[in-house]
Write the structure tokens for this entry.
Amino acid sequence: MSHSMDRRQFLKASTAIAVGSTLSSPLRAFDANAKLRTAHVGVGGMGGADLKSISSHAGVEVAALCDVDAGILKSAAATFPNARTFRDYREMIATMGDTIDAVVVSTPDHTHAPAAMTAMNHGKPVYCQKPLTHEVFESRQLRLVAAEKGLATQMGIQASAGLAYRQATQMIQSGVIGKVSRVLAWSFKNWGYDGPAFTSFDPVPDNLEWNLWIGTADMRKYKKGVYHQGAWRKQIDFGTGTLGDMGVHIFDTPYRALALTSPTWCQTTCRPPTGVGHPEQNIVEYEFPGTKYTTDTMRWTWYDGAYAPPSAEGLGLPDGLKLPNQGSLFVGEEGTMLLPHASTPQLFPEEKFKDAGYPDLEPRDHYHQWVDACIGEGQTSSPFAYAGPLTEALLLGVVANRFPGKKLMWDADSLRVTNLPEANALLKRTPRDGFQVAGL
Ligand SMILES: NC(=O)c1ccc[n+]([C@@H]2O[C@H](COP(=O)([O-])OP(=O)(O)OC[C@H]3O[C@@H](n4cnc5c(N)ncnc54)[C@H](O)[C@@H]3O)[C@@H](O)[C@H]2O)c1
């Protein structure tokens, strides 16, 4: 029996085991040389970093690379000359079939769900960049399908594996500041565009497959510097604004530490919608049902762009303390925790907590955790079971930005805004012809 058959039999068997169970590793036990053969969708920008981190695991063999930009694909292929290269992830997944074991998705946000769902429909475990999806409905579907198939998954919030965020989580759950009634979270970044629709366009660069880049979204003419690379974050059809982009990192620790579920409502302050870009500055307010770590209800407020950082007056911080440009603040019944983004938590009043100390934690590798989970060793810390509901909550705020000043009452079970029917039209994209994926 070949190495690859051993591995594939294991992966197939592991999909039958319920999510949350700890798997032993028959793969390793049977064949120490078998490697997890990975296929990567989007290998420029963060995709390049993901490729490097995942392939640094001794148990990984990079089997396939896909990018719509020929230049980017060529430079990634130079590092992995044995990997097959593709421009279209659908072709890659169909062609490679059982010769790949797992798929990494590092494309712009709007292609996360189509690529991840295509991979999961073929029974492949998935690592997907953050935020999990562009649409609320897609987050729900990725979570359900990953659970149904028992696939190892991880969303790319690497800071959640860092010591600072894990320490903050433990400290909050130990009750150090008592029950939490409010969280403020913010980022100075501006992934918005308040300008008008574009009226001048540029030729599509020779190296770019524009039709594939657009994917499920409505076709439009190419414009330099607006979409590929990176700037797509500002556009409503492709990115999720600063809330989706940074909020998913910064809200992760409060969401996890306080064991939050789905918001009951959401309301934003921002400029009226333009139909083009995300607003350049937003305040997004949510209420969550209480949990064992919070008061009866929990209020969460997000500030971005020029609204960040918020005023911290009256929140238990020393006079004159300058808030970092990205971070969060937990307001508890017995104290306040300031958590600068991916940095050491601080407790206030300082005098009261001078002996509090920090939990002693082992380092964790966010990427290797996923590879290990794929081959049956341990679990990931941000599987789709966690990332789905977190992203749903954030994306509800992105939808609310299209209805400034209106309170969106949310029924998570039925995935509906109950008081504003027009908002429900923004929860799910109708994919462009030719780009439909089963389950989305
Ligand atoms: N976790 C983090 O800290 C972090 C940091 C940066 C970006 N990200 C996330 O990574 C993702 C990519 O962001 P980025 O800044 O690298 O964007 P980018 O535009 O710089 O890079 C995207 C890459 O994907 C390729 N691509 C686009 N559409 C594709 C398709 N349909 N098929 C195959 N390849 C395709 C592009 O050519 C490019 O190489 C986003 O979801 C972003 O939120 C995460």
